[in-house]
């Protein structure tokens, strides 16, 4: 909740923009990234495979529904108004370091579909496997090979 505002205002850097230009000029095809910040999309890239998922979605571990992170953030702020103005330390890994006293009255968001409370960012955490649906299909693998071939010819 407290780290999201910082994540959602991140902007593509020169590398993201350069890759988008290479795609626009048909020098490369799709992109496979381990990034979870959607900055390649924001830079204008297309056919991006987010191998490790996206922080812009939330996954319900009970029913597998994926929800936009912004919607969950709005619910978090409605349910936890005492947290909205809290200043917290942002760790480099995206975690927020917070006084445990704030956790006492914290309302965990619920899934809008099944009412479960086992929501997590739709990303691959350390020790988890990449979801099969995120692995490139045959067509995308061909496009990636083609892109690599194009790049090697230069
Ligand atoms: Zn659910």
Question: How would you characterize this protein structure?
Answer:
The protein has 154 residues and is an alpha+beta fold. The chain has one domain. Helix content is 31%, strand content 17%. The protein has helices at 4-8, 14-24, 39-43, 69-79, 138-153; strands at residues 31-33, 48-50, 53-60, 66-68, 89-90, 96-97, 119-123. It has a three-stranded antiparallel β-sheet with strand order 4-3-7. It has a two-stranded parallel sheet with strand order 1-2. It is elongated and about 60 Å long. The structure holds zinc ion (ZN). Zinc ion binds next to loops.
How are the SSEs placed, and which strands pair?
Elements (H helix, E strand, L loop, with lengths): L3 H5 L5 H11 L6 E3 L5 H5 L4 E3 L2 E8 L5 E3 H11 L9 E2 L5 E2 L21 E5 L14 H16 L1
Zinc ion binds next to loops.
Short synopsis of the structure:
The protein has 154 residues and is of the alpha+beta class.
Labels describing this entry:
three-stranded antiparallel sheet; 17% strand; alpha+beta; 31% helix; 7 strands; 5 helices; 154 residues; binds zinc ion
SSE order: HHEHEEEHEEEH
Radius of gyration: 18 Å
Which hetero ligands occur in this complex?
zinc ion
Mean pLDDT across all residues, rounded? 87
Number of strands: 7
Query: Largest sheet, order of strands side by side?
Result: 4-3-7
How many DSSP H or I helices? 5
Strand content bin = 15-25%
Give the proportion of residues in helices. 25-40%
**Major pleated sheet:** 3 strands, antiparallel
* Total tally of structural domains: 1
Structural class computed from helices and strand pairing: alpha+beta
List unreliable stretches of 5+ residues.
none
Shape: elongated
């Amino acid at each position: 909740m407290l780290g999201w505002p910082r994540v959602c205002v991140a902007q593509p850097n020169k590398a993201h923009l350069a890759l988008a230009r290479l795609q626009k000029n048909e020098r490369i095809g799709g992109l496979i990234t381990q990034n979870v910040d959607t900055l390649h999309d924001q830079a204008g890239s297309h056919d991006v495979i987010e191998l490790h998922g996206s922080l812009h979605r939330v996954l319900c571990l009970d029913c597998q529904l994926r929800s936009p992170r912004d919607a969950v953030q709005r619910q978090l702020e409605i349910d936890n108004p005492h947290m909205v103005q809290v200043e917290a330390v942002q760790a480099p890994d995206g975690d927020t370091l917070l006084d445990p006293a704030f956790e006492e009255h914290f309302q965990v968001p619920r899934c809008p579909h099944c009412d479960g409370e086992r929501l997590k960012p739709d990303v691959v955490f350390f020790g988890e496997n990449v979801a099969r649906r995120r692995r490139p299909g045959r067509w995308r693998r061909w496009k990636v090979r083609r892109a690599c071939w194009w790049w090697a010819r230069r």
